[in-house]
Structure formats: C-alpha cells, structure tokens
Amino acid sequence: MAIKGKTLVKLSRWKLGALFCLACTTQAVAGSWEFHSGEEDELCIAIRDRLNKLTVGDLRDAPANSCAPLAVVTYPEFEMPPWQELDASKHEALIYELFRFSGLDTVAYFGRARPGSLDLWTEMTKEQQESFNRMQREEARRFIERGGRLRVWRTRLVEDFRMFSYRIYAAPGPQTIVQLRYPDEIRETANRKVCPELSKMVDAPSYLFFVTDDLSGLDSRLGYTADTLVGSEPLLLDGKPIFLAGAGPTVVTLGRDEGSGPHNFCSLHYQSSEEK
C-alpha cells in the first residue's frame, strides 16, 4: 500500500506538471505589427520593426494603452515641430470654437452643405444646437482648468485643402496651426504590460487645427483636409512634415503631403497571436 501510495503521488505530480506544461504551450503570446500598406517604404519598414521591438506583450492585456503612438513619436529620426506655447486661459473663445469644429466637421461648421442637403448642424433642433454649444463651452473650460495646453506653429503644412470633388490649393506662404494638447500622463501600470521600455514616458492626446493668423477662429478656407488631420500628430523628418494617426491602439498610419493633399503611405495593423 505504501508503495502504491508513493506511486500515486508521483503520477499525480507528473500529471500536474504535464498540465502546467500544456498551459505554458497554449498561453497567449505577443502578436506582431504587420503591413497593411507601405511594405516597400523604408520609413514604414523601420517603424514596423520599432513597434515589434517595443511591443512585447499581447495588446489584450492593456488594449487602451498600447504605447504604439508613443513608440512612433519617439522614433530617433523624428523631430518635434517648433511649437510655441500660448496661455490657454487667454484664448478660451478660440478653444471653444475648436471644440465646436471637432464636434461637427468642415461642412457643418462653415455651412457648406450642398443645396437641399442637411449637415450635422442643420439636422439639430434649436434646443439641440443650444445644448451642443453649451457642452462645448463647458468642455473648453474643463480643458483649461485641467491644465490643457494650446500651442501654435506657423509653417506650410499642406498644399491642398480639398472640398467635395474639387481641390482648394492653399494660398502661398505659411499656415497658422494650433494644437490642443491634454495634460501629460504617465501610464506606467498599464503600459509596462505591453511596452515596458516606454512605460515611464509621458503621453497626451492632442488635436490639430488650421486657424486665422490672429488666432481669432478657424481658417474659413479649409476643406476636408482639416477634418482628415484634426486627430493627427505632426512630426518632422528631414524638416518635412509626417502625419501620425491611427484607429485605436491596434492601427498606426503615417501620411505626407506631396502636393495634392495629405495621404497615407504607411498603414500598420497589430495582429494578436490568435489572429495569425
């Protein structure tokens, strides 16, 4: 009986070890960033390799904090634009208009709907319009109270503003660009699961707008380009703008304007281990 008992214990331990081994082999491993487009572009290849180097965990562990945008922004060849910081509290009226624009779009904000067509603004009742404006004013005040930043950069960012099916070539000279940037955050707890090398670096969502030279409001010459770029982060490569954007934590896109308006030349998608 004693021998049989020892044998049973050994078998139980072996089975338990086998189960642990099986769990190890079936445990989800990190996925990888793959090309959706841009596989022949040198910059796109370099960014794909960087994302795969820095993303070591499966994004299911922290899907809202993948660090992908931060990994791209910190790519050594990129430089940040020479932003000039403004006192946000002195530009509350402008910030309010920027929030209104981001909540609508170029057509609705400037009333450019085609004859007989409705837009996001004209579809609202008067009460809904008043409520919408009130919400944007409150959002502007909260942004300032939380320490949000307003930055300006005067440069020639794009060549074509585009509207409907026709082009709107930008006037000669620089354009006035402002960025609303929310307070910096360090998301160490979540980010160290998927990108430990970047876990202590600050990260902040931002929005991009074209405004008048005197900072009194949105540039009325805008077209669809303004809608396209509002959620992008401009970076400089050899002095030329590159636009970083994406769709959630699992898609990274890079764009540039080569004379006919911004377009994506690189799109990278994260594929989990189960999707491969």
Q: Assign a percent range to the helix content.
A: 25-40%
Number of separate strands: 11
Structural class: alpha+beta
Describe the largest sheet.
5 strands, antiparallel
SSE topology sketch:
Layout (H helix, E strand, L loop, with lengths): L1 H25 L5 E6 L4 H13 L13 H6 L10 E3 L5 H12 L2 H5 L15 H20 L3 E7 L19 E7 L3 E2 L1 H4 L10 E2 L2 E6 L12 H6 L3 E5 L2 E7 L4 E7 L4 E10 L5
Antiparallel strand pairs: 1-11, 2-3, 3-4, 4-7, 5-6, 8-9, 9-10, 10-11
Helix pairs in contact: 4-6
General description of the model:
The chain is an alpha+beta fold. It has one domain. It is built from eight helices and eleven strands. The chain has helices spanning 2-26, 42-54, 68-73, 92-103, 106-110, 126-145, 188-191, 224-229, and strands at residues 32-37, 84-86, 149-155, 175-181, 185-186, 202-203, 206-211, 233-237, 240-246, 251-257, 262-271. A hairpin with a 4-residue loop joins strand 10 (251-257) and strand 11 (262-271). Helix 4 (92-103) packs across helix 6.
In short:
33% of the residues lie in helices and 22% in strands. It has helices spanning 2-26, 42-54, 68-73, 92-103, 106-110, 126-145, 188-191, 224-229; strands at 32-37, 84-86, 149-155, 175-181, 185-186, 202-203, 206-211, 233-237, 240-246, 251-257, 262-271.
